[in-house]
Each structure stands twice: as structure tokens, then as C-alpha cells.
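hey so u asked for the seq, here:
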Amino acid sequence: MSEKIHEPILPPTVCDTDPRATLTDAEHKMYDEVLEHMSEAAYTIPGIEENGELTEAEKFWLSRECLLRYLRAVKWKSAAAAILRLEATLKWRREYGLYDVVLASHVEPEAVTGKQVVFGYDVRGRPGLYLFPSRQNTDEPKRQIEFTVWMLERTIDLMNPGAETLALLINYGDKAKNPSLGVARTVLSILQDHYPERLGAALILNVPWMLNVFYKLINPFIDPVSREKMKFNPRVIEDNLFTGDMVMSEWWGGDCDFEYVHEKYWPALVQLCESRRESWLEKWRTLGGVVGLKEWEYKGGATTHPLAEEPRTADVEKITESSAHVDVPPTVDAVEV
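ran it, C-alpha cells below
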């Protein structure tokens, strides 16, 4: 019998070189416009009447990769479109309380049954966020949603240099409870508006006929690109989505005999994520502590000087795999997660 696992797995090395190093001339110009705007000395977050200046935590969040994610989210339509969305998220993060309210101590009552667990990484190094609706233990939608947001943030903490997206694994077996349409719509709205380019895959098991009806109801609120990332009843090992040593054995067919014991898993997750963020923040400060620094470098994947010029491609039409990919034609205005 395999040994029980009760704690998160450390993230693997994803890639040897910065996958976002190369931009076309047109992309670089647009990126520079966004960076210049967000770096203005007198910049304040629109809609924040008092203390609207960027905090250190907000400057840290505004990495080069973050700015690029928002440019990809608007299909490289314009710098102004990306700025508008960035500022909406800055305002939302401040008002939602991500830095001072939605903390581990606040959401822990939601976590005691292990209804959401960050564990393992897929073959692309994307952290796996498991959802077990059958383990629902509370009736307060507000804190349930806050817990989901907190877990998304911790999943991001476990992304190594070069990884920017997550794999969502949802199991509706074991008499799972279905969230209300209102809760589902709110979570979808937060994902699409404030976590663009973060969903890599959504893998869903054991969908009964009633849940099929539910998904049909929320389907209009899911953008086309996100829908393409959804896979129902996948065989994650056979489909080469995960290796056995990185996925749970129960329901998912992996080699990891994971058992959720709150007193073991929760403090381990909190400590691991806090130590990683503190290390990154310290490195970010040594690199200048300004908007637009590379996650690739402060996370430990640096191979060049932080102020070195990124390579550019001469052909504006050529978007390589290492630059931002576009999932749908630029004329489509759907929001991508």
C-alpha cells in the first residue's frame, strides 16, 4: 500500500528559457504604452478617491507578464483597452480586500473539509486546483467565493518561472452539491474579468444529467475560448495531461494516495506560499521594485540583466509560440480566462 500524502507537492521546473521573451515590434510598442502609463510618477487608480497611489504589493502584481496577460486578454486590440481592464482589476483587488481582508485566517472555515485543494502539476507544469463540491460545508456564498479567490491566488503562488496558467480538476461524484447559478455567475465573472489568461484547462468528472442542464444554463456566460479548455470525463494519464506522480489516485487514476487532513495540509500550504511570495518580493526589490519587472527574473529564471532589451521580431504578423498566442481571431470581443 502506498504511503499517504497530506501536503502540497513542490512545483517542477517548467522551462529553461523565458517563454515571453520575444515580442513583435507592434506588440512591443503596445506593451511600452501600457508600461509607461502604469509607471507614471503621479499615477493613481481611477475610482479610488483616497490613497489611490499604487502600493508596493500592487506594483509587484503589475509585472511584465501581468501586463502581457491583459494585452492578450483584449486580443492586442489596443493599449487603452488593456489599461482599462488592468485598472478595473486594480480597483477590484483593492476593494475586494485581497491584501487585507481575504486572508488565510478569514477563509479557513471554508477549507476544513478539503473541498478545494492545490495539488500536483500537469505535464506543462501548471498547478492542479481540485474542486470537490460534495465536500461543501458552509452556506455563506460571500465567503465561499472569497475562498475560491484565495485558492486561485495560492495556485498562482505555486507557478514556477514560465508557468502562468492552472489546471482545474472538478469531480462531481460522491453526491456533489451544485452551486447556485448566482454563485457560479459571480465566480465566472471574477475569473474572466480579473484573472485573464489564467485558466489552462478545466477537467470535469462525473457530470450527471442535472448538472448537464446546469452547465447549459451557465454556458452563455462562458466565453468561447474558455469553453474549448473544458474536457468532460478525461482520462488524465492516458490523455497525457498528467503524469501519475503528479495526480491523485482516487477518481483521477494517478499514483498519489492523497488524503486531506486539514491540520496537516492547510498550514503546509499557507507556509509554502508565504515563503515563496516573500522570496520573490525580496528579489523584486533588489531588481528595482518597480512596475514591469519580469516574473521570470524575480522567480529565479533570470538569464539576462533585468534592464536588457527584449528580442523583437521584425514581422508584425508573426506571433510565435514563445510570444502571446491568440486563441480566437482579434475581431472576437469575447473575454478570455
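The mean pLDDT is 87. The first strand starts at residue 23 and ends at 24.
lmk if thats what u needed
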